[in-house]
Amino acid sequence: MDLGLKGKQALVCGASKGLGRGCAEALAAEGVNVTLVARTADALEATAEAIRKASGVNVTTVACDITTPEGRAKALAACPQPDILVTNAGGPPPGDFRNWTRDDWIAAVDANMLTPIELIKATVDGMMARGFGRIVNITSSAVKAPIDVLGLSNGARSGLTGFVAGLARKTVANGVTINNLLPGQFDTDRLKKTMAASAAAAGKSTEDMFAARQQQIPARRFGNPAEFGAVCAFLCSVHAGYMTGQNVLLDGGNYPGTF
Ligand SMILES: NC(=O)c1ccc[n+]([C@@H]2O[C@H](COP(=O)([O-])OP(=O)(O)OC[C@H]3O[C@@H](n4cnc5c(N)ncnc54)[C@H](OP(=O)(O)O)[C@@H]3O)[C@@H](O)[C@H]2O)c1
After folding, report:
1. CA-to-CA distance for 180 and 156, rounded, in angstroms?
2. How far apart are the C-alpha atoms of 193 and 202, rounded to whole Å?
């Protein structure tokens, strides 16, 4: 299927590895010129070079912290009129809410709620004026099925989800859709890190913890960033113009509910 995206411009945040990289690669494979954002310059440049070689599209890099106003200004200066915006940043740390201070909450809300909202604010009117836009927010399955130790994530991302649900109905008549992609467990560095920590806390080996977790998922495996990216690219495609304000769960069947 031709996704109809050749020549479009995408701003993809958190794109040097993991799910953001999966989205950038899938968009580039469809002929989208991509601007990649992440903090660590050398890893970002290595990813950019791999995408250039694989797809031949124009790849621009911006090494910055997207959760800061300065970082967002740099990213938007490099890609001022994106047709596609993928919002993403690291998730907040796990813990017990009794230990979280106001500053911990503000950091989580800044990174996982206000940063996407600021990026949407800076780009959505231009998309509407041009009659086409696709915004995909990478959130988490924790929005649908909250995870107790990830209270900061559950809370901040639910705030974004509520905001998007309202705005997405205001933009679609002008060709702009806004949807959220909810990852379950995907094989990325972040998953490896969190699982190593849980394994250590439980006195198990990381390998045993990995195997046990995969057995709990109906698909009996973790997702991979390429399949996450493929769904992102479809949401960004010309074929998905009637789909907006949705929370698309990718979790190998882990969520047990009907809806
Ligand atoms: N993997 C999963 O199973 C899973 C499940 C549920 C939710 N999620 C959420 O999905 C998102 C992506 O996860 P992932 O597994 O792909 O993580 P990852 O493998 O650690 O990759 C994160 C990417 O984002 C960049 N990044 C992080 N913080 C940033 C910031 N402040 N500014 C700019 N770039 C930033 C990282 O590069 P630098 O560190 O160099 O900046 C990297 O490129 C996270 O919010 C995570 O909580 C993931």
Report:
1. 14
2. 14
Q: Which of 9-18, 87-96, 113-122 has the lowest mean pLDDT?
A: 87-96
Q: What is the mean pLDDT of residues 82-111?
A: 96
Q: Which of 12, 88, 224 to mutate to test the pocket of ligand 1 (most atoms within 8 A of CB)?
A: 88
Substitution site in 12, 34, 36, 39 for ligand 1 pocket (most atoms within 8 Å of beta carbon): 39
pTM for this prediction: 0.98
What average pLDDT does range 115-134 have in this prediction? 98
Mean pLDDT of the chain: 97
CA distance 131 to 125: 10
Residues with C-beta less than 6 Å from any ligand 1 atom: 13-20, 37-40, 43, 65-67, 88-91, 138, 140-141, 183, 185-186, 188-191
CA distance 170 to 123: 14
